[in-house]
Amino acid sequence: MECITQNIHMDVLRCKIESQFTLEQDCNVADSQPDIAHILLSDCFIKPEEIRPANGEVTVRGKLCYRILYSSEDSFGQLFSLQGKIPFEECLQVPDLTIADSPQITIEPEHLQIHSINSRKINVRALLLVSGLVEDISDAPLCHDLTDAREEMQLHHTGHNVLNLCVMKKDICRIREEAKLTASMPELKEILWEQTQVCNLTFQPLEDKLLIKGELSLLLLYLSADEHESIECFETMIPFQSTLDCTGCKEGLIPHITYSVSQKSFEILPDVDGLERIIGVDFALDLCVKLYEEIPISLIDDLYGIQSELVSEYTTYPIKKLSSNTIAKMRFEKDFSLNSSDNILQVKCTKALLCLQRCAPVSEGLETEGYLALQILTVTDDDRFPYRIQKAEIPFNYCVAANGSLEKMLYEISANLESCQVTPASGDTFTLKCQASFDVFAYSKEELSSLSEVKVSSYPKQVSDNIAGISVYYVSEKSSLWEIGKDSLVPLQKIRDLNSLSSDTLIPGQKLLIMR
Question: In what order do the strands lie in the sheet with 121-146?
Fold first, then answer.
């Protein structure tokens, strides 16, 4: 007699990687660039180049790509951009790591400070957060039946819905798209500043392929090519679609996919008339792909024999059960005051960062709290330095609705700011409109005991002697038909037939006739 099993694949966390390191460097302004008077905006982007695992450690290597938008002395309304790269290499100690592993590593700037030392030199200081994990795939052979199961054997089953891992891989999604200026806007001469957000991202599993759809929210600050060399602001949404080969993928699978931007570049391209009115966008998304299927399975959790004793052995396996897989959209609008002494004439563009400070499971789902850090580039009435940066922090509170309570669940959440716009309202008051997405994958981890071996032997004589041939059983509040049949070594169907039971539900005080 052997167990009939269904093999469940699971991702099991072996070790986590988390470390910080500081990167600092003084950088000179190129001879072709004008002097720096005021740094208005600063930003950075991490471009990973190599992740090299070894026994007990991992080396990460890449570049910090920084940029600033600044004004120069007596620039009278002109803005300039400066970009540079700072290489880094850091070795992290990870005791459980081996050279054969493929860790999932992300490197993000946790803090960035760029200030001018003098008009020809800047200091770049960044705190980088390295996080990642190493996961293994393990198998759980869950027993749902027995070979040669006979009528004198009684099997008790319990149903479960478990997650089965079908695909786990890393991949890269390349996005190459173009955006064209509106007819009323002048040609491009130089891109001074850009902001992009990936939004409305969806993953659709197909047969051995993964369909990826989304949009790029693009804000562009550029120097026009006309005689005025004015500074223009262009905003657009660029739809994109990509298909990745994915062996083992099929329709109906549950995607749990995280991503990070590992490359982005922009170039000015001519249109069909030879006018430089097109922006070429080249993006790369590093994907960590997990595709699950939810499998209903009925496990044997107890058994007994009528004529022979069944000695069972069980093995415990960790499994995952899906609680919620939700993408929620927060649309947020609020009026606020800047309390600035500047006479603001116009809002040119806004740099926004969504900072998630707290997540807490509640009965309705997942409650999030945080704030939006705003840097608003404004035009003032100062002829010499008309461009100024106004800063504000706008708090938010949002509850991500979920199927079922998450209070006792494990969850992973990723928040993405998809759009943000600040417009003047009246006086010193401004209106913020933004949209953010929250992707929540919630699950429970449970230990399931699965039947692994059954041995058949004869009942000891004293067991057979102690069981009456016929008896009357009085049902208590804790009684179940299964326990009654197991204690008396009687088939359940025989008890049902003798007592004309239409279901296995028993009523306290009910009398049952039991006959061997």
Answer: 3-28, 121-146, 104-118
